Amino acid sequence: MTTKTRSSRRRPIAIGNWKMHLTVSESAAVAQRLAGLLGDPRRVEVVIAPSYTALQSVGGVLKETGLLLASQNVHWEEKGAFTGEVSATQIKDTGCRFVLIGHSERRVVFGETDEMVRRKLAAALKQGLNTVLCVGETLEQHQSGQTVAVVRDQLKKDLADLTDGPSGKIIIAYEPVWAIGTGRVATAAQISEIHEMIRGTLSEIFGPASAEAVRVLYGGSVTPDNIADLATIENLDGVLVGGASLKPDGFATIVKTLEKVKR
Ligand code: PGA
Fold first, then answer.
1. Cβ pair 102, 17 in contact under 8 A
2. Beta-carbon count within 10 A of 115 CB
3. pLDDT tens column, 46-56
4. Domains of the chain
């Protein structure tokens, strides 16, 4: 069903997910420092996802750099009476080019369903945003051998509207829930196997040529210490980094290592 793919034609990408951390001024300062350390990283795409409150300030800092801005979430409606939500149009208006969708903290903590994720993807793509669809199994699912079934099911449900093709705007982030913020990292063999399965599933949905263009990332306790090993995984196109992205020096090391290994 699946064929081994080389990632070399796809541009590596490192995304920093700052979650609910940093004030507006702290966010701008971290972005400034990171931009200073990285210069204009041409071979690796670098994306920062601060809190909603800091999108504008971080966007202002990144404007003069090669780094790009992301939102951590989006609502599926364009506007209306949805207290506390932010639409794709509003996100785009702050300068975001990317959006994370279906992060496990959204799914597990806030009860986001595949139906919601599917609608969010559609709304974001309609605005031309690059969507980072996060998928991954819980510890219980992992231990009971359901990883492949769970991730395949998420992909099929979340991408159900998009049989015409991914239009170059979809990125998949495989993030095992048990590896997020725990210091436990999936092994290279596990990541490689699931990434291959993901590309096989994308190929069933979109056809092989379109599936080949989609970047597939890993996330879950990525650090400056383990990036060198992770980056050698052939079918890994990049990383989604939480905790370690809050420290500019560490995140810069992650980006530079990815750049060096994926050369
Ligand atoms: P972590 O988070 O790097 O802190 O494990 C990853 C994520 O949630 O995207």
1. no
2. 12
3. 999 999 999 99
4. 13-262 (3.20.20.70)
**pTM tops 0.70:** yes
Q: Give the tokens for residue 194.
A: 């699931």
pLDDT band of residue 40 (cuts 50, 70, 90) is confident
Q: Residues 77-103: what's their mean pLDDT?
A: 98
Backbone angles phi, psi at 133, to 5 degrees: -85, 120
Contact between 224 and 244 under an 8 Å Cβ cutoff? The reply is yes
Q: What is the pLDDT of residue 128?
A: 94
Q: How far is the CA of 111 from the centre of ligand 1 (A)?
A: 18
Residues with catalytic roles: 103, 175
- 146, 217, 229: which is closest to 187 by C-alpha? 229
Mutate which of 221, 226, 246 to test ligand 1's pocket (most atoms within 8 Å of Cβ)?
A: 221
What is the bridge-based pairing of β-strands 98-101 and 130-135? parallel
Mutational test site, ligand 1, from 180, 182, 222, max ligand atoms within 8 Å of CB:
180
Block residue for tokens 């699946």: 2
With 80 as the cut, is the pLDDT of residue 5 above it? no
